[in-house]
Design goal:
alpha/beta; TIM Barrel; 4-stranded parallel β-sheet; Ado/ade_deaminase
């Protein structure tokens, strides 16, 4: 049984779920089906807070809505626990891709940290192989059901550990066999990208792309370090780049904004922001602006010309889908079909694919949106 898909919404007479989408910020261990957790948990004797899949889904949503990234991350103890065997990893990855395809995603990048899946004796290469097997099975299953999807791995290192160079080497080793990029994940505040400069230097020497979690639980300095030390081509969340914007005045819909140097750099260089609206609310990433979606600086960033993209972050924890996130934004900010298309085109342009394949993806989006 797939993760609960929120009821479809229609915009300008078109089903949002039917539209072609690109997902750039989507965690594998954040998208495990609750029913799968129950089933795999039973096999290993895992102590679960709820034995019923629907009740467990409610538990995840409740615990994740804490206003703290640290508390939010604690819910991952359950999902990673059932992802310690080859069979568990392959199944979770297969179902993950199937759920993406059901949501209308045609290209996705799934991020996960191999170092968190070694508890039952698998090696780093073995866990990557298991996930890649599941991804390919999911792609094949989607094709059999009449959907086309491609998914690449973003190999992530945990920012509070000291294995980032080893994980970077792992990612490069799997280039061309499923890995398309690198990331650092985990607790952001207190663990800046600069701690992993050696790994990022290595990746740069290998011309291997990186996106960096920054601007979620920490602010401008974290984003600066992601760009300088991490050479990030995208910003994981990056929502707190808005702290480098000074709203000078508002007159109706007219907003006069003064840019800081960092914000101007990110905007002018079209560095994609991997924004995740529901998750940003749950983790308190937008606490400086408010506690509701209408307080989210998403629309301000969009209107100012930033390369905003829409993402789910963690489908299970936020009990969401890309369709739902787009519907929420459309309702809150009165976006049209053209706006939703822009978000997908931004994501396609920022995908870690060769330029020819990005252009093909852009053509698929344009066709799907009726251009």
């Amino acid at each position: 049984m797939p993760i609960e898909q929120a009821g479809d919404s229609v915009i300008d007479g078109v089903s949002i779920r039917s539209l072609p989408k690109v997902s750039l910020h989507d965690h594998l261990d954040g998208g495990v089906r609750p029913a799968t957790i129950v089933e795999l948990g039973d096999e290993i004797g895992l102590d679960l807070p709820e034995r019923d899949a629907a009740a467990l889904a409610d538990w995840f949503a409740d615990k994740s809505d804490s206003g703290s990234l640290v508390e939010y991350l604690k819910t991952f103890d359950l999902t990673t626990a059932v992802m310690q065997t080859r069979e568990g990893l392959t199944r979770v990855a297969r179902e993950f891709v199937e759920d993406l395809a059901t949501d209308g995603v045609i290209y996705g990048e799934v991020r996960w940290a191999p170092e968190q899946h070694l508890g039952r004796g698998l090696s780093l290469d073995e866990v990557v192989a298991a996930v890649q097997e599941g991804i390919e099975e999911g792609e094949d299953a989607a094709e059999r059901s009449g959907r086309d999807i491609r998914v690449g791995q973003l190999i992530s290192a945990m920012r509070h550990t000291d294995r980032s160079l080893e994980i970077a080497e792992l990612a490069v080793r799997w280039r061309g066999r499923g890995a398309v990029g690198f990331d650092i994940a985990g607790p952001e505040d207190g663990f800046p990208p600069s701690r992993h400069k050696v790994a990022f230097d290595y990746l740069a020497s290998e011309f291997f792309p990186a996106t960096v979690h920054a601007g979620e639980a920490a602010g401008i300095d974290s984003i600066r370090s992601a760009l300088i030390d991490g050479r990030a081509l995208r910003l994981g969340h990056g929502v707190r780049i808005a702290e480098d914007l000074d709203v000078v005045s508002r007159e109706g819909e007219e907003v006069l904004v003064q840019f800081g140097d960092l914000a101007r750099w990110v905007r002018d260089r079209e560095i994609p922001l991997e924004l995740s609206p529901s998750s940003n609310l749950q983790t308190g990433a937008i606490a400086a602006w408010g506690t509701t979606l209408e307080d989210h600086p998403f629309d301000l960033l969009y209107q100012l010309g930033f390369a905003v993209t829409v993402n789910v972050d963690n489908r299970t924890m936020s009990r969401t889908s890309l369709t739902r996130e787009l519907a929420l934004l459309a309702e809150t900010f009165e976006y049209s079909l053209d706006d939703l298309e822009t978000f997908q085109l931004n994501a396609a342009a920022g995908a870690f694919l060769p330029v020819e394949e990005r252009e093909e993806l852009i053509d698929l989006i344009a066709d799907g949106f009726g251009d």
